[in-house]
Design brief:
The protein is an alpha+beta fold. It contains three helices and two strands; from the N terminus they run ααββα. The longest helix is centred in the middle third of the chain and has 13 residues. The radius of gyration is 18 Å and the shape is extended.
């Protein structure tokens, strides 16, 4: 089977659509202030608060929609994607977010 050059997709495979963060909170999560704070939190504590794996998400302990402060350091915690998704699912089931 011939190899396609890197970056080339066969014409029968649809292109992936990634619009980035375009949800209702996109302006906040794409802001310079948030990105700077997120980077600071992850560099200060690079491990997930739940499982001690490498963290790549900064989570609001009290969700913003429940009145949690967006920029307060004591309301932020580093998490890996798996633990963050689990926490969000639990919050959704409980009616939190």
């Amino acid at each position: 089977m011939p190899n396609l050059p890197k970056g080339k997709r066969p014409p029968w495979i649809p292109k992936r659509k990634h619009d980035g963060n375009k949800g209702p909170d996109a302006a906040f999560y794409n802001s310079y202030q948030w990105r700077k704070l997120r980077k600071m939190v992850l560099s200060a504590d690079p491990l997930c608060i739940e499982c001690n794996e490498v963290a790549n998400v900064v989570d609001h302990i009290i969700p913003i929609r429940q009145g949690g402060d967006r920029y307060l350091l004591s309301n932020l915690q580093p998490m890996c994607t798996r633990c963050h998704n689990r926490k969000r699912a639990n919050e959704s089931r409980e009616g939190g977010v």
